[in-house]
Specification:
Helices cover 62% and strands 9% of the residues. The protein is an alpha+beta fold and 356 residues long. It has 3 domains: 6-72, no CATH class; 77-177; 188-347, Alpha-Beta Plaits (2-Layer Sandwich), CATH 3.30.70. It has a 5-stranded mixed β-sheet with strand order 2-3-1-4-5, sandwiched between helices. A hairpin with a 2-residue loop joins strand 2 and strand 3. The two termini are 39 Å apart.
Length: 356
């Protein structure tokens, strides 16, 4: 949100604006499309905003995917996955060929043993020379089989290492796809998945909460000092969030200057205390340039919290936490508001939730 005035507060409800814009342009409601329009309309990525403005009146999915591949590393997924699929298929075929070859060698060795055993059974009296030839032949066959087995084992080890490399690249892609490139915390894509998981179990519904945080007057900071300073402030605040919460808590930058935290296993009072402590830490933190020493002044955040048990589902939970955040903005900013304290709230008693 851009906190310029009370009337403009609602116009900066980015989530609603994104959905309305996508509907107006006939854009499919895909996560990757939402991410493009969210970043563009929030103004946090100027290059992306210009790319979206340059689109035709009814952009095609190819147009949007082209922008995604250019702007977002996470949207290179199809190429990365396709390449990995091809590599894995080739490696598996090589492994299958090796195993077929090994089977052929073992079967051949087995036939030699069988023929030798049959020959010895039929000829109980063999000269020492003949026995020596049989032993030599068996030794050669055994050594050949052992050497071939070693080669197969070595090659399989190499193939396993190559497949592990592919696995690592896929895991790195998955991490990048869910990571905000500027702040290196979770992004909107990861947040959408995490908030959905809350409603997959009764425990998640009863003992989870959402905190939304928005930097106050962030547009003024960008206008006065420039986007590089704004980016640095976003990084500092992300570091404060990540370093000041439990390791198992989830924190994401959900777009522009908005952050989200999912708190598990805490009461509403405890969640409020977490939010209030984070708000105070940010207010007390120095925001100065390490190069010039320039002081950018006090930076504050407004927050809204909602318990999962107060909402019907993920979208409702986000909407109610956003309303509480809006209340913090219009009430003077730099404060935390609980949705449960707002007049006219419509909650749901999840204590009556049907057990599976």
């Amino acid at each position: 949100m851009q906190p310029a005035a009370v009337q403009s507060e609602r116009s900066t409800d980015i989530a609603s604006t994104v959905l309305a814009t996508m509907r107006q342009l006939g854009v499919l409601g895909l996560p990757r499309n939402y991410e493009i329009f969210y970043e563009a309309l929030s103004g946090s990525n100027r290059e992306l905003s210009l790319a979206v403005v340059s689109l035709s009146g009814r952009p095609t999915q190819d147009d949007l995917d082209r922008i995604g591949r250019t702007i977002f590393a996470q949207n290179h997924g199809s190429g990365i996955v396709e390449h990995a699929r091809e590599v894995i298929a080739n490696e598996l075929e090589d492994i299958a060929s090796l195993l077929r070859s090994e089977r052929s060698h073992i079967e051949k060795y087995g036939r030699i043993l069988n023929e030798t055993s049959s020959g010895l059974g039929r000829n109980s009296l063999l000269s020492p020379d003949v026995l020596q030839k049989i032993v030599n032949a068996m030794a050669v066959a055994t050594n050949s089989t052992i050497d071939h087995g070693r080669q197969v084992a070595s090659t399989l080890s190499d193939k396993t290492a190559e497949l592990e490399s592919v696995k690592s690249k896929l895991e790195e892609y998955k991490r990048l796809a869910d990571t905000d490139p500027l702040t290196q915390i979770w992004n909107r894509r990861a947040f959408d998945k995490e908030i959905t998981r809350i409603y997959n179990s009764n425990k998640g519904i009863l003992f989870n909460a959402l905190i939304l945080a928005d930097i106050d007057r962030f547009k003024d900071i960008n206008d006065r000092y420039g986007h590089p300073v704004g980016d640095k402030i976003l990084q500092i605040i992300a570091d404060i969030f990540q370093s000041s919460i439990r390791a198992d808590m989830f924190v994401a930058r959900t777009g522009g200057e908005e952050f989200a935290l999912i708190v598990e296993g805490a009461s509403e009072d405890a969640t409020y205390e977490i939010a209030e402590r984070l708000r105070a830490l940010i207010e007390q933190s120095p925001f100065t340039s390490s190069q010039t020493g320039m002081n950018y002044g006090t930076v504050t955040v407004s927050m809204g919290i909602c318990m999962a048990s107060e909402a019907e589902g993920p979208e409702d939970l986000y909407s109610k936490a956003d309303r509480a955040l809006y209340r913090s903005k219009v009430s003077g900013r730099n404060r935390v508001t609980r949705h449960s304290t707002m007049a006219g709230r419509a909650g749901k008693s999840w204590l009556l939730y049907k057990q599976d």
